[in-house]
Each structure stands twice: as C-alpha cells, then as structure tokens.
Amino acid sequence: MHMALDARELCGHPTGVGRYLASLLEAWQRAGTPHRITLYAPAMPEWAERACAMESARGPREDSESSSAAARARGGGAPRAAIDVRIIPGRPGTWWEQVQFPRALAAEPPDVLFAPAYTAPLRTRVPIVLTIHDLSFAAHPEWFAPREGLRRRWLTRQSARHAAAVITVSEFSRQEVLTRYGLPETQVHAIHSGLPRVATAAAGAATAEDQEPLVLYSGSLFNRRHVPDLIRAFARVAAERPAARLIIVGDDRSHPPQPLEPLIASLGLSPQVTLRRYVPDEELAQLYRRARVFAFLSEYEGFGFTPLEALQAGVPIVVADTPVAREIYGEAAVFVKVGDVAGCAVALARLLDDEGAREGVLARAPAVLARYSWEKAAAETLRAIEHAV
To answer: Is the model's pTM score more than 0.70?
Structure first.
C-alpha cells in the first residue's frame, strides 16, 4: 500500500497535531510496517530530516519487498517503513491544500491519503482517512475570528463527508462528530493518542531537591483554556507564598485577544509570573522536573496532551472538570469547576504544600498512563487506513 500524508504540521515548531503525527510515524517505523509512506509538505519537515539522518546512519535502505524478503530470510524482524518526502513549494494554507496538493496527488496517485489535521483536499479521487481532533470551531464559534471560523466549519464538514473514514482522539470527540455531521457510526473511530514524548527526560527523575514552588502551564493559549483564571487563582496562592512562581508556556492564539501582561501587572505578579511563547522540548522537560503542580483549566478539548506529560513526569495536575477530562485523566487529577477561581486556588495550594495530596494523585497516575500507547494508537490507525483502502 502506498499512503500519502499531509505533513504540513511537521514544519516549523510542531505543537499538538504535529506531535501527534510525528509520534504515529515513529511508531510505524518501530513496528516496521511494509507500506510505502510519502510525506507531502511545502518545505522539508525537521522531523523528516532527522529521520533521513538516522536512516543514513543505518546504511542503505532496501525497498519494501526486498526488505520483507530479507526479514523472512533472517527468521524474524519486520521491514522498516519506507518514508519519502515530496516538497510542494508554497504557503501551507487552504490554497496549497485544495489546489497544489491535489495536483501532486494526481501526478502519482497513492492508494490512500491520511490527513491528520481536520481537513483534506476535496477534489481528489484518492480515498481519504481524516483525523478530527475536536470540533471547538463548531461547538464554540465565538472563540474564532468570523472568517477563520467559517473556513474551519465548512471545510472540516466537507472533508468529513468526503472521507472514507474519520478518526477522532477521544470518545467525546467521536460523539460530537457523529452528532454534528451525521456520519455512519462505523465510519468514525475513536483512537486514543499515546503518551507525549516531551516529558520522557523528566519522567520518574524529579526529586524533592529538583522541585520548586512552581506552577506550570504548557499549551497554546486559547480562550477555552482560561489562562486568565489561572493567573487570578495563582495570585491568591502567591499572596501567602512569596516564593511561588507561575510559568506559562504557549503561543497566544486567543480570540478575542486576552492580553495577559496587563492582567499580571495589575495583580502585582510581574516578578512571579513568566510568559514563554515557545521552549524546546529539552527545556520543557526541565520545567517539568522543577514544577510541583501543573494546571490546565480547559473547558473544551479533544484529548489534551500536556496534563499527561505532567503526570508522566511525576507532577500532579489540576484540570477543569469536563467530560473529556474525566475520560482522559480518570482518577489521576484534581478537578475544579470551570470558572471557579477560588476552587482552583485551593487546589493549587494543596498540591504545592500537602505531600499526602500529591502522593494520592500520583499513585493513581500509572493506571491512567497505562491506557495510552503510541504503538497501540499507530496499529489501530493503520488498520483504519488499510480498511479504507
């Protein structure tokens, strides 16, 4: 099978969807799927450059058929996935996706197209498997600029209707897709993502000496994630703990804009609150080592990676009490009502100070984390793709 893949999310600084895609590709490589995979992107993805370097270090790669035969001759071992890259120069927007990309697909038609980021070309005869991570733009249009929200709503709906199969990353999102788009139940698959990779260096390694009275938030800044409420809650915590710190890591994508600097200044928190638009994975892992609490007050997610990163790194989490948070984090979290600033402050203070409360949350984390595996997610995703073909 020849699978084409929209790899735009691997370019630049990959965030949620980019990490999702990179993790699937790495799991497919480890599993040794014999299928041919071609990444299409407007520029060379950094992930692909690293993968090519690793392949070069291993030596020349056989094609998939000869590699399969070689594996059988050795008496075991699966062939590595054959991953190629096609560069289609241009800006990575709708024109690229709907005009330039389909032309490239028509020139060398694959057996299937995997579109991992909500939308796909509408004018292609190639069967499409589409991942829809959430429907925030449909459920809460007020969080998006009018033109951008309209584009997302129309194009995602049309892409879903053209797709042979739709993958979601939680049962919560699956039910939303089924309800809003009216697709057959057999066409929509809920496949949980695996554990985040960024916390690997910090997982299980932090000690009391490493940690500070630090509250950490990581993730893009959307209105639904109520970062201003987190800052207000932290102000109550900091009033009694002068050494406490709050670090917020994420690109500001809020709409309407929620300027955080004036709020921080008005609360007198400038010395204690740090805003970082982006940090490399290695530095983020070190922040997890230092943190005592991770806070994520999102009222709407499709999955929510970063609280799992925190749990994996041994940091207890405070999250908004929503159906998807209950589905994903189970009992390994302290839940607070959306908009409850006072309740959030109490939860943060407790996890900063109370070792028993911290240990209670972290003791339940292994059972929750055991549910998630990129190997499992990759295998289930590949089965859905193969079935669509």
So the answer is: yes
